[in-house]
User: What shape does this take?
Amino acid sequence: MKILWKLRFILKDFWRQYLLAFVCLQIVSALNLLPPWLIGKVVDGIKNNTLTHQTLAHYVAGILVVSVAVYGFRYLWRSWLYGAAIELIRKQRSRLFAHFTQLSPEFYQRHTAGDLMAHATNDLNAVEESVGVGIMTLIDSMIAGFTVLLAMIFLVSGQLTLLAMLPFPVLVWVTSRYGVALHSRFERAQAAFSSLNEETRESIAGVRAVKAHQLTERQLQRFEQLSYEAVEANTRVARVDALFGPSINLFFGLSFVLTLLGGAWLISRGQLTVGLLTSFTLYLGQMLGPMLQFGWQFSVFRRGSASWGRVETLLARKPQVVDARDAQHAPNDTGLSINIQSFAYGNAGQGSVLQNICADIPSGTFMGITGRTGSGKSTLLRLILREFDLPAASTIEMGGISIRQLTINSLRKKLAWVPQEPMLFSGTIADNIRFAVPEAPLETVIKAAKMAAIDAEISVFKEGYSTMLGENGINLSGGQKQRIALARALLSDAPVLLLDDSFSALDMKTEAHILKNLMTLRQQQNKTIILVTQRLPELISADHILVLDRGRIIEQGNHEQLLLQNQSGWYARIFRQQAKVLLQPLATESAGTSL
Ligand code: ATP
Ligand code: MG
Assistant: This one.
């Protein structure tokens, strides 16, 4: 029941529905007392030969009217209460989702998507059960149980009630023991569900790799295993759950036996009529429902409470990167100045990923970043995006203001990032390109696609820009995905372009074509281009190039300087190697371009 206390602020918004449901419930409980009482009257009437057709008709009509009224009121309170519970959980689910969108990448490194999905579905469903069915049964069992108890004591006999109630304390103890067992088993079932969820998500997302590596069989076995574990865990829950009903029936059987014995004795002494004993047994029968619910509701509340605890933990997680209290809007001057003494990913246990990185990137600059794989290039871009915060001694400034002092929204509006692994969404190609600017007209989408050299290929598709993409663009080639992601960045009017190895899947002709377009764009709109690449010919016309190795700048300068400075250096060496293979065809094919 702790959960109701924890949820009091949320429940407060729905007090009207809960109050109405409560009133209806009381009416139902009071009405329910009538039929047993009337039946008792009929029995006594028959026994004493005083029953006339007319009174019987009245009794029957009374029972019918009460039944219809109970039907109506039950419908009303159920719809109010369930309606409130569904709405309440909808709000919490939206809140959780909104919270997820705020959290930093670091959070997603710790939680799998399947796990988060399980919290948003299974856990919140368990909470919904608590605040809907749970509250209902709690109130119902208390009100109904209590009114029936009063009726038994005052309409029939206090002594008989005491006798009939003898097994009840034991019953309450037994059901609460079941509740504890159920709780721990439910926790395990929930964990098994999370794993199964993640496995399903991962297998579907990675279906190509699974097939290519002939892993289908192994994947199936893993899935079988996990779903077997989930079934096993749920069966264990069901086994305890199944014990509730029979145990309660057993105790009730005992209660009925005691009632009959005690009732017969009281009748023989003339202290009770047969009709009243009939009413009493009917009332006792009415206690069965509330008692069953009472035991069962222990488990519902425990489940709900545990689930809400998990959801609360997630809601309590603070995004690591947040707006400073006096954060300002990003300035118009988007020149960047980077001064990183050192940066390490907090959780990796490895040393610094970046060290002593200093660079000035005035707006309109074409900056190249290259270096071995794993040298920290993507990390640098992610720091400019402020996906992670730098330690205090390091800064990245935009227009002379530390990006920590800028609102995250305004900073990211200035940056158009094409990540190393492009992310596409299920939807049309056009919607994927206009992702950041949903209201952009089709002409603008086509213009961006032309600049990203993908327009011709899209036009060949039967449905052109309306072609639906599968999950993460599963129906596109790697190069097509890259260019759609590029078109998306070009469509936004952000003055700084961050391109992370964005042409790696393209042929040289397309690559040169796009580079030419980018250079034109830079000239026309004074855009800053920061291009991370392993293909050095892309950087020939760059204003400045940083060469990273294990997180440090090992060489820098423009293309000519790098070639001349240190002929046996990394840049010169790799350029010569690549030039042999790449530059020959590039030179002939892209003659007349700015390269
Ligand atoms: P590539 O050319 O392969 O894309 P890169 O130069 O972009 O490499 P980064 O992705 O910046 O390299 O990675 C630099 C280092 O940081 C690597 O050693 C990597 O293992 C580590 N790293 C990257 N991302 C994370 C992360 N989220 N958590 C912990 N360590 C990370
Ligand atoms: Mg990278």
The chain has two domains: 2-315, 336-414+494-594. The domain at 2-315 is CATH 1.20.1560.10 (ABC transporter transmembrane region fold). Confidence is low (pLDDT under 50) at residues 589-595.
